[in-house]
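Human: I would love a firmer grasp of how sequence relates to backbone shape in proteins. Could you go through the record with me and say what the backbone is doing? Here is the record:
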Amino acid sequence: MQSTPLGTDVATAITKANAINAAFKEWRDGSQSKLVPGSVMWLFDWYRGTEKFTELRHVTRTGYKLAMDMVVAIEMKVGRFGTRQAKLIDATASDALYKKAKEKHGERQGSYMMQVCRLVWNQAARHHKATGVKDNPFSGMGIKSSSGAGRGNRASTRAEYEAYKLAAAEMGKHSMAAAAAILFEGCQRVYDAFGFEDPDGYVRGVRWGGYRPGESIGLIQSKTGNVVDIPIVDRLDGEVVVLYPELEAAIGGLKRGADDDLIVRDERTGAAYTKDYMNKLHRRIRKKAGLPDDLKFTSFRHGGITELGDSGEVDVRAVSGHKTLNVTGIYNKASQEKALRIAARRREHITTLVGALAEVKDDADAD
């Protein structure tokens, strides 16, 4: 054990003391210390106790923790990376870690591990009095965020999405067509569209009370569970411009329920879908539509967000809900204005895309 000053700040002193006491107890019990104060392992443990970590969704916390455990276990020239002092990690050490991570776990997972380290060191540097970390050696590494995209989560094309909706309607499963539209057009998550329980135990769902035909639809910002009204029409010079005709057409194929009822419900029972039946039905619809096996239901959300990006909008949070929203009257107004602009640009992109495809078809017919 090494003598460690606790400082004069009570919160910092308690954090350090708890770590030292835990390490000392393990030493007394004859086991190797797992939380040497200031080590990378200790820093990860500190981060997992912060609000920045605990407020994340369960699935995100699980992914971060797994990445941290993998970083800790990487064997370096001398010992494991987790035993090193976090404040002494420099750019050379982080580059060496990245190289070993890619060799052991592959490019995709190695990149994700470095992204998690970058996030942890960012927070550690902000609280350097508690952590001893002043710089972030994981910044500026040129890690691409897209490298974390997993298999099975590819984006669907609009053509695949339209074929899927058509097959679902032919099978009498208009609810599945509506669910696909809520994901693709509204960029919602699967469990929010179907009202499934999410990994943190919350049940939300897109409900009839939030849908006002020809006006707006209440979509869920999944990080908070807040419902934000997204305009589905715009008015320019007295003319009404329909921004989401595909979404309204899909929802229009359903019988409206009470305000608190889910829009997407199992036609057989009138109740919410079970995950098992939804997955089985999705495979049947996909097969009928002649679509590939790697088209998951989540692919529709990825496809919608990709289409937004292709239309020229980089920041799509007002629709997709990727970041926590501060829901105040002023922010909601700004969010709606941004949502209108996003939808208008996307509509222009879709019109251009459909027109280009029609020209290709006409040329082919002429040949």
Q: What stands out?
A: The longest helix spans residues 329-366. Confidence is low (pLDDT under 50) at residues 146-152, 313-338.
